[in-house]
Amino acid sequence: MTDPRPRHDAAVSGMFGRIAGFYDLLNHTLSLGIDYYWRHVLARNVRVGSTNRVLDLAAGTLDVSLAIRRRFPQVQVPAMDFCPPMLQRGLHKLKGDNARAIMPVAADAKKLPLPDASVDCVTMAFGIRNITPRSEAFAEMLRVLTPGGRACILEFGSGSERIWGGLYNFYLDRILPRIGQMVSRDPGAYAYLAETIRHFPTAPALEKEMTDAGFVRAWHIKLTSGIVCLHVGEKAR
């Protein structure tokens, strides 16, 4: 039987490549600018240790990498994404010290080109939904984290939960795909976004996936009434 995962990965990478030019605009517009706050909370939960290195996965156009550097100006940030056009779009944001400290690299989160125990923290914003199977990405995070290291994963809440009396679910199903299509001219991209949110696990279910993968403990913080959750997992010391 043919493994469907490479085809899925290629399709997702290609889709993000097609919308790379509109990605930042749509992020800010569709979230009404709240995405800046979400990334701020993510960076605030980063913990830095002996390596002075934070790995940003699904780094996209590098906004999270820059948020990490604003909070920790001394750290190096390998910024990895499996869609090179997304990283390319972020290069113009790298000025001064950030151009040296943030290192964009095309890479698969399930096969990281890093040695064991080489980073203090791993971040990922709105990327874990796109990875199949998630267990392989969690295993790689644990491998590259130092003992006691932390993974901070920002992701949309599950569309299976009614948020704001179902208003968010209506927005997700009806409004978001239409706005995304009008701006990006890609009818599939934001329909895919809504679909993956709708089928994403609840926060407790994702925590169980993380502890099953080997994180010694995991918890979450609800943001904006649970539209987004920050999931934090720690590796044993």
From TrEMBL:
This is Demethylmenaquinone methyltransferase. It comes from the Bacteria. It catalyses: a 2-demethylmenaquinol + S-adenosyl-L-methionine = a menaquinol + S-adenosyl-L-homocysteine + H(+). Its EC number is 2.1.1.163. Belongs to the class I-like SAM-binding methyltransferase superfamily. MenG/UbiE family. It is an enzyme of class 2 (transferase). It comes from Desulfovibrio piger. HAMAP family: MenG_UbiE_methyltr.
